Amino acid sequence: MTQPVSVKLLDPRAKMPTYGSVDAAGADLYAVTDGPVTVAPGQTVLIHTGLALAIPQGFVGLVYARSGLATKQGLAPANKVGVIDADYRGELMVALHNHSGESRTVECGDRIAQLVIAPYLTAQFTQQEELDDTVRGEGGFGSTGSK
User: Fold this and answer.
1) Can you identify the CATH homologous superfamily of domain 10-119?
2) pTM above 0.85, yes or no
3) What does the alpha-carbon distance between residue 34 and residue 131 come to, in Å, rounded to a whole number?
4) pLDDT tens for the chain, residues 1 to 147
5) How far apart are CA 18 and CA 128, in angstroms?
6) Which of 2, 96, 114, 122 could form a disulfide with 26 if both were Cys (CB 3.0 to 4.6 A apart)?
7) What residues does 8 pair with on adjacent strands?
8) In sequence order, what are the residues at sequence separation of 6 or more whose Cβ sits closer than 8 angstroms to the Cβ of residue 135?
């Protein structure tokens, strides 16, 4: 299943998002930089993509880490998952955080994250004095066990 998404290239160096395989859910996003960008250990750097999107109403763009970049280089979005709302028309940027103990370099054209376009529901919140009981009840972190 495909969903059309309009993309505006804001920079001549920008690359359209690309899928790595026919069944990939996430499309790779590419860095647009004016030269090598060094990301020190523990540092977060805002990386441009040079893209603006027109995500259709009822859909959301979710920006996730690229698994290889995160596990091999320690670079992943600082906010874990970026949420791009359908009514946002500004540049898509990635706050890339270095979780490793070594400085890492990002260059123009590097794949830095992946974008998933997904449908979503909005909730109609209603205030209640009481909530239905469940077996779990108010059991929070770790309440269902570790194995």
Assistant:
1) Deoxyuridine triphosphatase (dUTPase) (2.70.40.10)
2) yes
3) 54
4) 899 999 999 999 999 999 999 999 999 999 999 999 999 999 999 999 999 999 999 999 999 999 999 999 999 999 999 999 999 999 999 999 999 999 999 999 999 999 999 999 999 999 999 999 988 888 777 777 767
5) 46
6) 114
7) 52
8) none
List b or e across 32-55, with b for residues whose CB sees 16 or more CB atoms inside 10 angstroms.
bbeeebebeeeeebebbbbbbbeb
Q: What tokens appear for 63 in the block?
A: 């920006």
Q: Which two tokens stand for residue 57?
A: 């109403």
